[in-house]
Amino acid sequence: MPSCDAIIIGGGINGLACAARLSGAGRKVLLCEAAPVAGGGAASHEFAPGFHVPSLAHTTQGIDPRVMAGMGLDRQGLAFHPRLATTVLSTDGQHLTVTGGATDGPDAANFAALHDQLAGFARVLAPFRAMAPPRLAPAGNEWGKLMRHGLGIRRLGRDQFRDFMRMILINVYDVAETDLTDRRLRGLLCFDATLGSWLGPRSPNSLILYLNRLAMGDAPLLPKGGMAALATALVRAAAAMGVDLRTNAPVSRVIIEDDHAVGVRLVSGEDIRARTIISAINPRTTFQKLVGAASLDADFYRRTSHIRSRGGAAKLHLALTSSPDFRGADLATRLVIAGSSDAVEQAFNPVKYGEVPLAPVMEMIVPSAHEDGHAPPGQHVLSAIVQFAPHAPKAGLVAARAEMLENSLARLESHAPGIRALIAHAELMMPQDIEARFGMVGGNWHHGELTVEQMLFNRPLREAAQYATPLPGLWLAGAGSHPGGSINGAAGWNAADRIMAQVRQ
Amino acid sequence: MANVQYDAIIVGGGHNGLVTACYLARAGMKVCVVEKNDWVGGAAVSRELYPGFTYSNCSYVASLFRPEIMRDLELAKYGLQILPYEGGAVFTQDGGYLGMFRDHDANRREFARHSRRDAEAYDRYSRDILRFCRFIRPMLLRTPPDPSRFRPRDLAELAWLGRQMGALSERQRGEMVRFWTMSISDFLDEYFESPVIKGYLAVSAIIGTALGPMSPGSAYVLLHHYMGDVDGNVGAWGFARGGMGSISKALTQSLIGAGGEVRVGKGVGKILVAGGRSTGVVLEGGDRLMARRVISNMDVKRTFLKHVDENDLPASFVKRVKAFNIRGSSGKLNIALDAAPVFPALPEGAPNLKGDLHFTDSIERMERGYDDWKAGQFSRDPFQDVMIPTMIDPTMTPPGKHFMSCFVQYAPPKINGRDWTDADRDAFGAACLDQIETYSPGFKDRVLHVEVRTPRELEAEVGLTEGNIFQGELTFDQLLFNRPVPGYAQYRSPIKDLWMCGSSTHPGGGVMGAPGRNAAAEVLRDARLPLGMSDAYAVL
Questions:
Q1: Which of A4, A299, A321, B103 counts the most CB atoms within 10 A of its CB?
Q2: DSSP letters of A452-474?
Q3: Are B97 and B91 a contacting pair, CB within 8 Å?
Q4: Is the CB of residue A160 less than 8 Å away from at least one CB of chain B?
């Protein structure tokens, strides 16, 4: 006899959101998390005595409002600092501050106009994030919503609609070069669009990633108490809604009987049964490791290997003995070293060949500049996402990691002279390290690259795009499904909606 | 005095301009093609630049040219003959080669020599590509709908597109969308493991584009090159007997036969606009030619930014034309050879020399060439698409001698932001010759004459802005209803009676003739004249 209605594998934000939604609707839900603490990419760790860093994500572009309200996250103590300004660093000290579309300098008006246009596009695309993706078939679609949202695009007006058609699959580099003149703003736009992707700014289909980001929010947010506080609030909210959360409970496989998923077997050997099995971990891992070829169509199984999942970002943590000086930049902002649009592209070039870039680009957060508790008094901790890093380095992981660290520190030193002397401890995670620690195949944050050919009805694979999979009883709810990753929760919430509509209690 | 009244003046005598002119003349219009050079053909020309040798000195292979047009305009009668070529090869750095043949099974066996797994995958690959081709080909000879309007014809065309999609299975639709948006490198990775096989198959995805094989959207470009056929043999490529100029020559004869007129030697200085409509052109030197309508075969940037007053155009249109991407990515070497080159890697008597020869044995090497292009450099390790048409067509050179055409990527429109110099051009040419010498020792001793063409020469002579061979890059933001700019993809411009018929319009470049035919259809419909066109035929 099933001991619960649904088992959710994986306690990242999507797994927790899905579990909470189902539990809130009266279903008995068990969530199995492999790690000692749930939270997935929203985690912290003490990487040197007294220094705590966000382990992977260090900001959120915005939690899905349905998740925020539906889980009552604010009631569980989640609060954010005011939305972060971005400081675009320049080696000559001529930094530029950007908040949403507002900035100063000679190009401010152009940037505001471009931001308005792109925010307009993002606004009409955002509703598509909050629904199961369409099918390329008459059946199984939420036609009412699709028509309404489609009409929303058309209501941009003829001229804007024409630009929308032209720009939807354009590369961000051309937009930056055409619409902006300030090297710093061009660099920032190119950097933000390609953050977390395996694309350079000159790759077609890169602007849409920026639109996706804008659809979540127009500036990064920093939770009070750090990313761990966000994870704690998620866990508390899920528990308050009745989710039975088991940590240290890695799943070894999905139990299949009569071609139906009927339960999970834990690594400990324990079997747990339920009518609905929901995987909020990586889709490729789900199908290849937890299910296996024997229970899947041969062609479908072959294509699970085609889910492209190259991570292009490394994570850098520094313990600093005193305050670093980025030529006067405000440390309580998001600091970006992008250089120029070409510099971002050049940082991507070597990664295509499994090599480490000479001059990586990066965004940095200094949590200790925002609030106490992250580093010993008077000292600082710096968290950086450094791009691009090869997911399969030709030189081998150890050598590539050392080279990446050296190149990152050299780049930092050129923007904050003397910073290397302040480093008490440094840690750099390559995409392979991220894969090992967080189960993200290839170290890709989205559990499968978020690219146009892997979006909507093709995410992660056509037969599993609407959260149901070809194996009856097994569902997907993670970032590998529509609309992709980031600390947002939309995929988990959408999946729960779909499951509630299709699996009657 | 030149105050002749024409029904249509076509600005530029490229192959598309000639195709449009032919159809209009056949429908009874009085047409005149105005060409700045002393010869017609644009980039489809045969020129004797070394005594006794005919060069196809721009475009060099024919396959995309629509057979419907050949039939409608009776080009065979006017002397056009396409000779399919018989093979191809990629030479590898370790002294080996991958050969290609006209026969699928022969290719399969050759693939097996490099990878058994890839030989298995080749059937699956060929089947999938053919399916994508079959879907897209009917779109070539149709005017794209304008989704920003709700006119009956646009709705009807959108519905037609919908029905095309509807004829596919859900799986095929999903695969189609993936294919259109992904990179050729990622696509090939789903089938093949051998770097040289992938290197060979990626070629068609980069020819002429300002994309690398790892750029999303490059898979579509592959399709653009596969859509052609020779005598209904899809994907086959061939040479125009006597060089690519034979196409232009046959078109010119067809035009004259239909009562059309061609004026060479003086280009158009300005397109006349009065009262919001186009009334004719002023030639260099000041002669005026008045016409009921003007049809530009020039690219969209040249037409509207150089030959029309910006004040006669809507600001949003000008902005989008200025943003139109037309960066050149290629150069060309035309070589007269004293004797056939020898490639020791190939077995004696192999048919592979009768086709395309490459020296780039991996996608990585191509992509690195693209990185050079992005940095404003030409590649020191260039990708070359080498052909020796005289292996099949003896009419182009004296007996025993050969003409070799080397299409080279990547070559940027400017070197580090400045114009090309003669020294740059010579260094570029030398890098290419050195590469060939590596695989064909003694090659350089057989060279009688070399013409090196960079984007600079292409722009100066043919008038292709920035040397882009497609009159505009083939990325989604510039394809279908976005080509050349959204709202003006139906061969009309914001100025009444000023039309476009060049490769800047749907479906884009290559010696295909489709833009010219589609433009003619729109003009004739507008003038309420019979089209005189055979239906797009579907041999597949």
A1: A4
A2: GGGSGGGSS-GGGTTSB-SSTTE
A3: yes
A4: no
Give percent above pLDDT 90 in chain B.
86
Residue of A nearest to B177 (CA): A453
* Integer angstrom CA distances of residue B153 from A111, A412, B144: 38, 58, 10
HEC assignment per residue over B182-235? CCHHHHHHCCCCCHHHHHHHCHHHHCCCCCCCCCCCHHHHHHHHHCCEECCEEC
- Tell me if B148 and A165 make a contact (CB, 8 A cut-off): yes
Q: Of A78, A13, A3, whose CA–CA distance to A495 is shortest?
A: A13
Interface test with chain B among A136, A163, A194, by most B beta carbons within 10 Å: A136
For the record, the structure tokens of B238 come out as 């061939």
Q: What is the dihedral of CA A98, A99, A100, A105, to 10 degrees?
A: -40
Residues 6+ apart with CB under 8 A from A225: A232, A371, A373
Which of B124, B128, B148 should one mutate to test binding to chain A, selecting the residue with the greatest count of A CBs within 10 A? B148
Min Cα distance A459 → chain B (Å) is 10
Please give the distance of CA B310 from its chain centroid, rounded to a whole number: 29
Per-residue pLDDT of B203-246, as tens digits, reads 999 999 999 999 999 999 888 888 765 555 655 678 999 999 99
Q: What are the residues whose beta carbons fall under 8 Å from the beta carbon of A480, sequence distance 6 or more?
A: A282, A283, A284, A307, A446, A447, A448, A459, A460, A491
What mean pLDDT comes out for the span B479-505?
A: 97
Determine phi and psi for B458, rounding to 5 degrees: -60, -40
pLDDT tens for each residue of B356-378: 999 999 999 999 999 999 999 99
pLDDT value at residue B538:
52
Q: Distance between CA B46 and CA B54 in Å, rounded?
A: 6
Q: Across the interface, do B482 and A166 touch by the CB < 8 Å criterion? A: yes
Report the amino acid identity of residue B436.
I
Give the pLDDT confidence of A381-410 residue by residue, as tens digits.
999 999 999 999 999 999 999 999 999 999
Task: Write the DSSP symbol of residue A42.
Answer: S
Region A476-485: mean pLDDT is 97
**Does B421 contact A at CB distance below 8 Å?**
no
Q: How near does any CA of chain A get to the CA of B370, in Å? A: 10
Q: Which helix (H) or strand (E) holds A263?
A: strand A260-266
**Which ipTM was obtained for this model?**
0.95
Query: How far is residue B301's CA from residue B277's CA, in Å, rounded to a whole number?
Result: 19
B502: left (phi over 0), alpha (psi -120 to 50) or beta: beta
CA A118 to chain centre: 20
- Distance (Å, whole) CA A498 – CA A481: 13
In this structure, what are the phi and psi dihedrals at residue A102, rounded to the nearest 5 degrees?
-95, 130
Evaluate whether B302 touches B424 at the Cβ level (below 8 Å). Answer: no
Give the position of tokens 């860093």. Answer: A53
> How many inter-chain contacts (A to B, CB under 8 Å) are there?
96
Could you say which residues from 448 to 487 on chain A have a Cβ atom under 8 Å away from some Cβ of chain B?
451-454, 457-458, 462
Tell which of A453, A456, A462, A466 to mutate to test the B interface (max B CBs under 10 Å): A453
> How far is the C-alpha of B166 from the C-alpha of B180, rounded, in Å?
17
Mean pLDDT of A418-433: 98
Cβ–Cβ under 8 Å, residues A1 and A272: no
Are B429 and B362 in contact by the 8 Å Cβ rule? The answer is no
Give the mean pLDDT of A407-414. Answer: 98
Q: Provide the terminal-to-terminal Cα distance of chain A, rounded to the nearest Å.
A: 15
Q: Touching check for B174 and chain A: CB below 8 Å? A: yes
**How far is it, in rounded angstroms, from Cα A154 to Cα A142?**
19
